[in-house]
Amino acid sequence: MKSFELSEPATLSEALDMLDAEDTSIRALAGGTALLLMMKTRLFHPTRLVSLRGLRDELSELALGRGGELRIGAMTRLAELEYSPLVARAVPVISRALPRLANVRIRNVATVGGHLAHGDPHMDLPPILLTLGARVRAHSPRGERWIDIGDFFVGYYQTALAKDELLTELVIPPQDPGVHAWYEKYTALSADDWPAVGAAVWFRMDQGAIAEVRIAVGAATERPERIGGAEAMLQGSAPEAAAFARAAEAAAEEVNPLADIRGSASYKREMVRVHVRRALECALKAGASEAQ
Asked: Which tens digit of pLDDT belongs to each residue from 29-60?
């Protein structure tokens, strides 16, 4: 590993001053679980790492906002989300998914901001956040801006963040009590591996029919994405096995899977079909259970 400079700012403004919009060898360091692995395997050679450890108090809020939205600071560790009663009440789909996200050692170190800003399409939270309608706040020397999570992931390991910009907060809007949501993760290797396919679903019922639905897939594609054709297939339908199967078939036809060590493109397409259907079925059951 080549030598590099390690900067440890005490405030957000100091951290932003240490980044460089033109220099890709300067990178922010949060939990470091992904970045350090890239350095060890010589995929990334930094000239400077800007450690955000000193910003933890400033960027680790975990609370409900005035409008009932869940506000999560970027330096919040994944394990803190996993064990938070607030998260379990506000967005139980996240609490259910986290115990299978990597392993407990990773979750105790990895941060929410790093998880998202890394842009790895195999991460578990992005497809879930797509269905929850989340957005992120980013800061740069030019000020702050809000980015809808649907616009945040722009390509393979690519996000909408500029090189001198930091993700500082994740906000999830309040979820209606009757919402049905689920994340179905399929791993082709070990149980704590990155998913080969991650399928997230969210739907709201009205008078026995699905009034609004969101379906997102991650890991199988170059970036997490909503599956509009499958959503349209379910809109207005009764929540039953036949409708779920048709939506899953539409999802499999719509995605453009990437082959890797976890499976061929055709295999991943079949796994999308299977796990979108399972996610819809599990969401229906989970919603009925939570309503009791």
From this structure: 999 999 988 999 998 999 999 999 999 999 99
Burial class (CB in 10 A: 0-12, 13-18, 19+), 142: exposed
Contacts of residue 85, defined as CB under 8 A and 6 or more positions apart, other chains included, come to none
Q: Does 165 lie in the same domain as 186?
A: no
Alpha-carbon distance of 19 to 276, in angstroms, equals 40
DSSP-derived secondary structure letter, 54:
G
The answer to the question of residue 161 being in a domain is: yes
Buried b (16+ CB within 10 A) or exposed e, 123-141: bbbbbbbbbbbbbbbbbbe
CA atoms within 13 A on the CB side of 183: 28
- In angstroms, the CA 1 to CA 252 distance is 42
Q: Number of structural domains, the chain?
A: 2
The residue range of the domain holding 278 is 180-291
